Amino acid sequence: MHVPDGFIDAPVSAGTGVLAAVAVAASLRGARRELGGGLGEAGERTAPLAGLVAAFIFAVQMLNFPVAAGTSGHLLGGALAAILVGPCTGVLCVSVVLLLQGVLFADGGLTALGTNITDMGVVTVLVAYGLFRALLRVLPRRRSAVTVASFVAALVSVPAAAVAFTALYALGGTTDVSLGKVFAAMVGVHVLIGVGEAVITAATVGAVVAVRPDLVYAARDRLSVRLELRPSPLAPADEPTTAAPHEQESASAKAPSRRSARSLWLAGLAVTVVCAGGLSFYASASPDGLEKVAADNGIDEKAEDHAAEDSPLADYGVGDIANARLSGGLAGVIGAGATLAVGSGVFVVLRRRRRGVDGSASTEAQQPADVSTER
Asked: Where does the chain cross the membrane (predicted)?
């Protein structure tokens, strides 16, 4: 659903650019809290996980899957990012992916970057996270409920983004087309794409829940482990065997699965490399949902050439390599690596700034107040 240059006019593109900038600024502030504020050991793992989530989204977006005759779809990733690392961090993950796709691969217009961040980042994240949290309140308190909720949230987030694009096109579309037809076509095909999004999201979230449930940000309060203490043989018989509430909370934050977060991170990195460097060669060559709807309804009549069309990585291939498999695979690995580096860098800096702020506040709180006496 990458919107090219020329689909939306300049005023609306500028407006979505401002909206996206505000959303990213707010997310930078909120991500400091999500990347460790009050999360104990789990917080230490969130920053590198967030960088990996961004790289994984980039890689899986290369895997277009067929959804109808002559149409394909791909992961948007907002639901996955919001559930795993939080809504603010999720917006940043998708924004990093869209920025690098536009600059390095000529995918998604540069003047339309604000539109794409608003549509594919902000809308999908807010819709998916809100629905996911609402579902957890009514579903049974089981791990399987987290997977079910992630499936539904991801499914709904994709047609929601299609509705948002239609609304933006109604405000600033550059061609005179029937909005009713555009709405029906966009929502119809993106419901099908949403099924694929839901399967990928639920499978990924389910895998993380099975290994390290404490790393699923949006469900930590549902997946906490209650600490029970065995009575000591030397303790009095009437001594309570359950820890105090504050001790239970602290223990649940420090009771992750025995498998290390490093193993999970390495496994995720391996899957990312395989998707970007190998499986991407077998992706569907059919146009994605937006491209197909645009071609069928004349939305693309005023589409503009991409400013980065001469990039050596344009169209997800290395320009000087003739072998299509090698060219595409190498471009995918380069893109995933760049996304991992940029995303991890941003999140580590935010995490350290959060730690610095918390440390300064703690030091200030511990300093004795000056006491002056007057005689």
From this structure: 7-28, 48-67, 79-105, 117-136, 148-171, 183-211, 264-283, 330-350
Q: State the pTM of this model.
A: 0.86
Per-residue pLDDT of 41-50, as tens digits, reads: 455 567 789 9
Indicate if the pLDDT at residue 242 is higher than 50.
Answer: no
Would you say 192 and 236 are in contact if contact means Cβ atoms under 8 Å apart? no
Mean pLDDT of the 275-294 span? 96
- Angle subtended by helix axes 324-366 and 10-34, to nearest 10: 60
Residue 268 in tokens = 């995720």
Mean pLDDT of the chain: 87
Query: Domains of the chain: which residue ranges?
Result: 10-230+242-356
* pLDDT given at position 246: 42
Is the confidence at residue 57, as pLDDT, over 80? yes
Cα–Cα distances in Å, from 194 out to 62, 65, 305? 16, 11, 29
* pLDDT score of 359 more than 90: no
Top-level CATH class of 10-230+242-356? Answer: mainly alpha
